[in-house]
Amino acid sequence: MPKNVLKEFKVLLVEDESNIAKLLKDAIGDYFFSFTLAKNGQEGLEKMKTIKPDIIITDIMMPKLDGLAMTEKIKQIDESIPVIVLSAFSEKEKLLNAIDIGITKYFIKPFDPDEVLEYLVSLAIKLDKKRVFKLSEDLYFDRNKNNLFDKNDKIINLTKREKDFLYLLIKNHPNSVSVEKIKKTLWEKEEATDERLRTFIKRIRAKTSKTLIKNISGQGYLISPDNI
Length: 228
Fold this sequence. Notes:
3-stranded antiparallel beta sheet, 8 helices, 10 strands, DNA-binding response regulator, Sig_transdc_resp-reg_receiver, DNA-binding, CheY-like_superfamily, phosphoprotein
C-alpha cells in the first residue's frame, strides 16, 4: 500500500473523546504532512479556516457544534473538501443526513485504524491527481502546499493573502468568484473597498502575468481560460 502518498496531505481530526483522538493520531498521524486535532465542531471550523486541511475526519455528537452542522458550514466554504465521519452505530438516522450534506465516507465505532488508513490512501491518490493546477504554460499552483511555481519549479514569492486569492479562484474554476465573496474571504474582519481589491489584483498580475486573472463585468474574477 503506497502510504508515502500521504506525506503531502494535511488532516484535521475533530473528535471530543480524547482517547479516540489520541488513538487515531498515534496510529496513523505520522504518515501525513500534518495531523491536527480539534475538540469540538466550533474549534474544527476555526482550524479548518486557518490550516486549510486536505481531508477532515469528524465525530458527529460533539459540544458547541456537532459534526454534521460543522460539515454543512465547511461545505459552504469549500464544497470539494472530503469529510469522513466517525459514528456510533446508534446514530444511523444522522448518517442518512450525513449523506445528504456530502459526507465522503463513514466508519462505525469501534473502527480499525488500519481500515481508516487504507481508505485515506485510496482517497489521497485521487486527490493527488488534482493537487497541481496548471494556470498557464509557465505557471502552476500546488494546492496542498499553497505555492505558486513556474515551469522550472521555481517558487514565485506571494503573500499569504495572494496565495489564498489564487486558491479561491482555482477552487471555483471555471466559474467566476464574486467581488463580495473575494472581499469576505480575504479581508474577513477588515474593510475592503473595490479600489483596494483592484490594487491587490494588479500587484498579483505584476508578479505573475497580466492575462492570468480575468475580470467578468458584473460577475467577478476568474482564472483566464485563455491561459489554460
